[in-house]
Write a structure and sequence with these properties.
mainly alpha, 2 helices, elongated
């Protein structure tokens, strides 16, 4: 069998590995529930059918 070639050195990976060894793994990210925004302008114009229905009511 042929010998395995060593991987290319990456300074960023070495720094991150060193930080993980000293401080520990970072906590997993949490999804923050955001409330729907209010007071925004309507993104799309209302359809003609919707306008007619509102006028009839």
């Amino acid at each position: 069998m042929t010998k395995r070639k060593p991987g290319k050195f990456s300074a960023a990976k070495a720094v991150k590995a060193n930080a993980r060894a000293r401080v520990g793994q970072p906590k997993p990210a949490r999804i923050i529930d955001t409330e729907p925004r209010t007071g925004r302008e309507i993104k799309h114009k209302p359809k003609l059918e919707e306008i007619i229905r509102q006028n009839e009511s």
